[in-house]
Design goal:
Elements (H helix, E strand, L loop, with lengths): L11 H11 L13 E5 L5 E6 L8 H9 L7 E6 L11 H7 L4 E6 L9 H8 L3 E4 L3 H7 L1 H9 L3 E9 L17 H12 L3 E5 H7 L14 E6 L18 E5 L16 E4 L5 H10 L4 E4 L3 H9 L5 E7 L27 E8 L2 E7 L1
Parallel strand pairs: 3-4, 4-5, 6-11, 6-12, 7-8, 7-11, 8-9, 9-10
Antiparallel strand pairs: 1-2, 1-3, 12-14, 13-14
């Protein structure tokens, strides 16, 4: 439901266009947010539009103003996120907006970054511009929920993905697990990876599956590949050690046997952690600019990640197959619950059908 005065609802279509522009850079702007912007001249005609393409590149407002040129005078700029008012890799957008001679700024959401939050809007108002806030705020917040989560919590938004049979198995008793789902479902996983900054697996996944963990060319650059190993008991010939296609980080805790690195090919980066806590790993990845990560790990690490509040979203592919077998072949280990009332409760947010397989997206 949109709670705006009638005279402000005219900005809704323009904000929708700005959101569409912002999404053109999905998966490419971290650690920055997704931002889209349009400029209207004094007569309400579209004269400029733009979106932020990546950290260090011009912000959406600057792209739109550059396209509009002098036609922006006495006009309106519509932007999905509060304009920045601080010097980062690029100059503050508030000053460019003021210099352009605009009379009105329409903002979708307030920037959660404490360097900006409310200060950009105040700077514009103090300079005599009319500022209209909260146009399609929920939609603007949705496209940037991962960015906002990192800013507020100090770690990336976590997605946990698994594929299973109808009876909840991720593999046969003999360990065979390829392929539970169909090709379209696997293509969907590549698409999900392309919109993430990093993909994380445990040592067991590297030993048994020897994955490549790329988006198969859907993202350039490819997401960062992270192996989170307690012991560093890893094969020396894994595909992940070839970093020509994508960067690889080997993260390990205090129990890791660092002699593993003695004859490892150059390329993979080392990340020594103080603990085996998934939260510490994500804090480190946030500092490397990750807004959103994908857990593609086995039951032990997946369970630890959920317990550590490092999973905010589940993507579960369900194939119409019955595998049977022991409970250890389920996607999660025991959480130690003793009553149904204490279990995790999730929200069903999206159901998609990939030929024979169903894809459930749920939020914690």
């Amino acid at each position: 439901m949109i709670n705006l005065p009638e005279d402000q609802k005219i900005w809704i279509p323009w904000m929708r266009r700005s959101i569409q522009l912002a999404l053109l850079a999905a998966g490419k702007t971290s650690p920055n947010p997704l931002v889209g912007s349009i400029v209207l001249d004094s007569g309400g005609r579209l004269v400029g539009e733009g979106f932020h393409t990546g950290a260090g590149n011009p912000h959406a407002e600057i792209e739109a103003l550059s396209q509009a040129g002098k036609k922006s005078a006495n006009g309106t700029i519509v932007v999905t996120l509060e304009p920045c008012c601080h010097q980062g890799l690029t100059p503050p957008c508030t000053e460019a907006i003021i210099k352009a001679g605009l009379k009105r700024v329409v903002v979708g959401m307030v920037d959660p970054d404490p360097r900006v939050s409310g200060n950009g809007i105040s700077r514009l108002k103090d300079s005599g511009l009319e500022v209209i806030e909260g146009v399609l705020s929920q939609e603007c917040e949705l496209i940037n929920r991962e960015f906002s989560f990192r800013v507020r919590n100090g770690r990336p938004w976590g997605i946990l993905k698994w594929a299973m049979s109808l009876d909840g198995r991720i593999g046969l008793p003999n360990g065979n697990s390829k392929w539970i789902t169909d090709v379209p479902a696997r293509n969907s996983v590549h698409q999900i990876r392309s919109n993430c900054d990093a993909v994380i697996v445990g040592g067991g996944t590297v030993r048994f599956d020897n994955p490549l963990l790329t988006s198969r060319g859907l993202s350039n650059p490819e997401p960062l590949r992270v192996i989170f190993s307690r012991s560093l008991n890893l094969p020396k010939d894994a595909k992940l050690w070839d970093t020509k296609i994508a960067r690889t980080i080997i993260a390990y805790g205090p129990e890791g046997d660092e002699s593993f690195f003695s004859d490892l090919p150059d390329g993979p980066e080392k990340l020594r952690l103080n603990t085996n806590d998934p939260a510490e790993l994500l804090n480190s990845l946030a500092k490397k600019g990750c807004n959103k990560i994908l857990w593609e790990c086995g039951p032990q690490l997946a369970t630890s990640a959920i317990k550590a509040n490092c999973v905010q979203e589940l993507v579960v592919f369900v194939a119409p197959k019955l595998l049977g077998g022991k409970s250890a072949m389920s996607p999660l280990n025991s959480f130690g619950f003793e009553s149904i009332s204490s279990t995790y409760k999730l929200q069903h947010s999206f159901l998609d059908r990939k030929v024979e397989d169903l894809c459930w997206r749920l939020l914690f």
